[in-house]
Amino acid sequence: MHWLTHLAKKQTKPWCLFVSFVKPHFPLIAPQEFYDMYPVDSIPMPRLYCPEHVPTHPVVAGLKRCMNYDNGFTTEKVKIALAAYYGMVSFLVLSQ
């Protein structure tokens, strides 16, 4: 913080600040109070998630070949994962 507030303005060459947050990414683990903000039974299934609705674009097919997170996810597990993801986003936003 000291560098940003005092030394950055003295720089004569361009510089870049890179900030990377650990969350929200796998593993989908949110602090319990933030996970509880999103009851699993109230989470709707994502649009275009069912096999008959998945877009048939070649890029989507290519992604499924190399990183298919959908295999092994039941409807219940999808909703649990979404609740955890929403909880991690809320934790990131609200704990600043």
* Helix-strand category: mainly alpha
Number of strands: 0
Based on Cα principal axes, name the global outline: flat
Radius of gyration equals 19 Å
Weakly predicted, low-confidence segments: none
Element order: H for helix, E for strand: HHHH
CA(first)-CA(last) distance: 15 Å
Chain-averaged pLDDT: 86
Number of helices: 4
Structural description of this entry:
It is flat, with a radius of gyration of 19 Å. The protein has 96 residues and is mainly alpha-helical. The protein starts with a helix and ends with a helix. The model has no long low-confidence stretch (mean pLDDT 86). The chain has helices at residues 2-7, 32-35, 58-66, 75-94. The protein has one domain (21-94).
Secondary structure topology:
Layout: H1 2-7, H2 32-35, H3 58-66, H4 75-94
